[in-house]
């Protein structure tokens, strides 16, 4: 079986509503993707914007191994290919690959292009023929192919056949609106292949699936699975998507999930990424850093919660060599996470301690004491069983030689006329110190800035710790206690080091919202010092 080609469309990913990629961002992502061995990278649409025109010469400076593709559309209906500015912009990139999309659904030909069906076929044929004069490879994306096939299968086939006859090297069947089901992908693709088998044409097919119906990855996998049929295998050659599933509307099929499933431990389908598979989790986190999106913890294979075990039975089985995981996460450079809750047993604690570098036996009395403390805190309203920063602090306190970086002995906040003043006193690195800070904001903001100012006198890196998000919740189990209710405060922190963003969350619980806020801010700074300062 030949390798399935992986095609990353950074261009399509940049259309995600939450992304604003700079030229530098695109170059960084392309270099990361190239480091995985991905053979095709579509970087931009040079006719559409200035960044995508300038990114191609910049990429040439780095000498990437991947084939870089320039993207565009078929020529305008009332133009010639030679005079079409869009096609000329592609040619000017001098890339080894030109990728263009064209209509394959009669609805779009008639309503959007306002053209005849024959005019559209001529535009497809002449556009591909023109680009083949300048680019070693031309890829044709058949837009809305699966919808077009349902509406008029004969015409949809004529569209991709026009591109094939003009010399297109790859014919990509696109589920552009993301609405197809896996069985539709399977049956339609089979009919396309049978069509080419009857004509004895060696067309090479790929898939470009969007995720609007939630099936982007499943549809891609269904397409690839057809390669297990020896008759179909030569025709199934390429999958398109984005690393992280970014893209317009709901996004594109996620290549992290696709590659995880194509692995030898799952489907056994070879790709060019196989030799660099263990880099996938790091690349996931680095791409999220570049695009300034928090890594989604529930992303299959590469997310933080992949392989997370909450039940004590699961953790005990794992310790004894039994597996509750369907896949070895180390193959993608990830590791299982441990969740502590009132369902947990001592096995969870041992695995958690081991994940933080402690070598400890299940019979050690400190393990039971640590489990009891986790459960006691849970009963008090702390929800820290899946928060690594909370776990780390408690394990370090009970099992480690925790360094007392600082201790706060006095905390007072006054809020008046839109100004908040915080007085803090305590020991920092063994020396007594105090600070008085006023901010134009609330008491929590004043506490954060005062503590940051106090600690940064001895620990300069504290200046880089941001309080990113702040949540507060009534946790009195439905009792109507009003202002007297106990609250849980959760804060997300961020710290940037060596170009990498680090995120963590801590919690504080009290009947006093200011006390809970001080607790969580203090914990956030303490975790930072243990993880980054030390």
Core attributes:
single chain, 534 residues, alpha/beta, TIM Barrel, Double Stranded RNA Binding Domain, 3 domains, eight-stranded parallel β-barrel, 14 strands, 39% helix, 20% strand, elongated
Write the layout of secondary structure elements.
Layout: E1 5-9, H1 10-13, H2 23-35, E2 40-44, H3 50-60, E3 67-73, H4 85-92, E4 97-103, H5 106-111, H6 117-131, E5 137-143, H7 145-151, H8 153-165, E6 170-175, H9 182-199, E7 205-209, H10 216-225, E8 236-241, H11 255-262, H12 280-291, H13 312-319, H14 346-355, H15 365-380, H16 388-399, E9 406-416, E10 419-428, E11 431-439, H17 443-456, E12 466-474, E13 487-497, E14 500-510, H18 513-533
Parallel strand pairs: 1-2, 1-8, 2-3, 3-4, 4-5, 5-6, 6-7, 7-8
Antiparallel strand pairs: 9-10, 10-11, 12-13, 13-14
Helix pairs in contact: 2-3, 2-12, 6-8, 7-8, 9-10, 10-11, 13-14, 15-16, 16-18, 17-18
Structure description:
- It is built from 18 helices and 14 strands.
- The protein has 534 residues and is of the alpha/beta class.
- The protein has 3 domains: 69-269, Alpha-Beta Barrel (TIM Barrel), CATH 3.20.20.70; 312-381, no CATH class; 406-533, Alpha-isopropylmalate synthase LeuA, regulatory domain (Double Stranded RNA Binding Domain, 2-Layer Sandwich), CATH 3.30.160.270.
- Strand 10 (419-428) and strand 11 form a beta hairpin.
- Helix 9 runs parallel beside helix 10.
- The longest helix is centred in the last third of the chain and has 21 residues, at 513-533.
- The chain is elongated and about 80 Å long.
- Mean pLDDT is 89; it is low at 311-315.
């Amino acid at each position: 079986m030949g390798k399935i080609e992986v095609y990353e469309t950074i261009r399509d990913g940049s259309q995600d509503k939450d992304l604003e990629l700079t030229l530098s961002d695109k170059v960084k992502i392309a270099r990361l993707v190239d480091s995985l061995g991905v053979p095709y990278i579509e970087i931009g649409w040079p006719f559409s914007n200035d960044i995508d025109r300038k990114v191609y010469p910049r990429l040439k400076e780095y000498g990437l191994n991947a084939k870089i593709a320039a993207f565009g559309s078929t020529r305008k209906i009332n133009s010639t290919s030679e005079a079409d500015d869009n096609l000329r912009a592609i040619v000017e990139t001098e890339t080894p690959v030109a990728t263009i999309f064209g209509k394959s659904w009669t609805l779009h030909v008639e309503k959007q292009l306002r053209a005849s069906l024959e005019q559209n076929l001529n535009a497809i044929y002449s556009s591909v023929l023109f680009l083949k004069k300048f680019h070693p490879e031309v890829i044709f994306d058949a837009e809305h192919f699966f919808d077009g096939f349902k509406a008029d299968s004969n015409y949809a086939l004529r569209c991709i056949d026009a591109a094939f006859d003009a010399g297109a090297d790859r014919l990509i069947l696109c589920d552009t609106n993301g609405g197809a089901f896996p069985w539709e992908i399977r049956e339609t693709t089979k009919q396309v292949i049978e069509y080419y088998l009857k004509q004895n044409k060696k067309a090479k097919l790929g898939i470009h699936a969007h995720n609007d119906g939630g099936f982007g990855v499943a549809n891609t996998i269904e397409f690839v699975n057809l390669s297990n049929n020896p008759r179909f295998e030569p025709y199934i050659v390429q999958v398109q998507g984005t690393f992280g599933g970014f893209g317009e509307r709901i996004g594109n099929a996620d290549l992290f999930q696709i590659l995880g499933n194509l692995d030898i431990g799952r489907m056994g389908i070879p790709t060019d990424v196989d030799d660099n598979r263990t880099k996938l989790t790091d690349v996931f986190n680095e791409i999220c850093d570049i695009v300034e999106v928090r890594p989604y913890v529930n992303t299959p294979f590469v997310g933080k919660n992949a392989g997370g075990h909450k039940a004590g039975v699961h953790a005990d089985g794992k310790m004894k060599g039994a597996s509750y995981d369907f896949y070895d996460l180390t193959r993608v450079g990830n590791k299982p996470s441990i969740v502590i809750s009132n369902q947990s047993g001592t096995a969870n604690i041992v695995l958690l301690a081991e994940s933080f570098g402690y070598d400890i036996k299940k019979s050690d009395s400190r393990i039971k004491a640590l489990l009891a403390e986790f459960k006691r805190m849970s009963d008090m309203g702390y929800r820290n069983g899946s928060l690594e920063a909370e776990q780390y602090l408690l394990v370090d306190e009970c099992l480690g030689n925790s360094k007392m970086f600082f201790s706060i002995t006095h905390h007072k906040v006054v809020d008046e006329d839109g100004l908040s003043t915080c007085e803090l006193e305590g020991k920092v690195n063994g020396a007594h110190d105090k600070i008085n800070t006023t901010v134009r904001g609330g008491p929590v903001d004043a506490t954060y800035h005062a503590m940051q100012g106090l600690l940064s006198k001895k620990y300069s890196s504290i200046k880089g710790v941001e309080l990113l998000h702040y949540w507060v919740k009534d946790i009195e189990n439905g009792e109507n206690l009003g202002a007297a209710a106990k609250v849980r405060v959760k804060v997300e922190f961020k710290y940037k080091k060596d170009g990498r963003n680090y995120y963590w969350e801590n919690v504080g619980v009290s009947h006093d919202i200011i006390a809970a806020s001080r607790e969580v801010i203090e914990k956030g700074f303490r975790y930072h010092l243990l993880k980054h300062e030390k």
